Amino acid sequence: MKRAVLAYCLVLSALSASWLPASETLEKIQSMLAKPSVLCGRFDQNKRLTGLKKPLISRGRFCVVADKGVLWRTLHPVASTLRITRDEIIQLEGDRIIIRRDAKSEPTVRVINSLMFALLGGDFAKLDTLFEVDGGIRDKNWSLQLKAREPGLSKAIDGIALDGDAHVKSITILEASGDRTTIVFSEIQTEDRAMGADEAALF
Asked: Tell me, what DSSP letter sits at residue 177?
């Protein structure tokens, strides 16, 4: 489940970026981010597994809807849909629920949900509670590097890197196993025109 959903990467040079204390960096980046009620776009995911020469590549659509959740639709190579809310992760096949994981009974699900909302929704105040944060800003672009604070989380995730401007543009997740996932977001649209009727129906 974690492998199907997470990812992120980019490190800016310290010589070309403006580096600030972590709290000031987060506040500045938070002010740079757009805060639409609906944000959708394309994702391209590259997953490199330890021991495999060729990466696993997938692409699809994502939507983040404020106060509702995250919709993650893989379109290639195999179609699948994840709906992530504050309370659960649901895997769908068409409109039929295949897997449901409850955050109340599975603490790991709660952490994943919080992480996905924070990463895709730009809730960096939440990220600061889960990770030690370092980062920098250059013109209208920014980058962050995250290290898990909680021992339970650090057992799964070795580090995360993000970059963006008014939106998060890429995420790279380095897992403790050595696996590495990079997701690049593009074709971003916001508000009413962003989400199709079929996507809205899944919420």
From this structure: T
Instruction: Residue 184: name the closest of 198, 196, 171, 199 by CA.
Output: 171
Residues near 55 by Cβ (< 8 Å), separated by ≥ 6?
Answer: 46, 47, 48, 49
The single residue listed with the structure tokens 């997740």 is 173
Amino acid at 7: A
Cβ-contact 142, 9 below 8 angstroms: no
Q: What is the mean pLDDT of the chain?
A: 78
Q: Which long-range contacts (CB under 8 A, 24 or more apart) does 76-82 make?
A: 80/4, 81/202, 82/1, 82/4, 82/5
Task: Specify whether the CB–CB gap between 9 and 169 falls below 8 A.
Answer: no
Number of H helices, E strands in the chain: 6, 12
Residues in the chain: 203
161 in Cβ contact with 180 (< 8 Å): no
CB environment 142-151: b (16+ within 10 A), e (fewer): bbbbbebeee
Cα dihedral 174, 125, 106, 182 in deg (nearest 10): -20
The number of angstroms, rounded, from the C-alpha of 177 to the middle of its chain's C-alpha atoms is 19
Query: pLDDT (tens digit, 9 = 90+) per residue, 27-82?
Result: 888 888 888 888 899 999 999 998 888 999 999 999 988 878 888 999 999 888 98
The C-alpha atoms of residue 132 and residue 59 are separated, in whole angstroms, by: 30
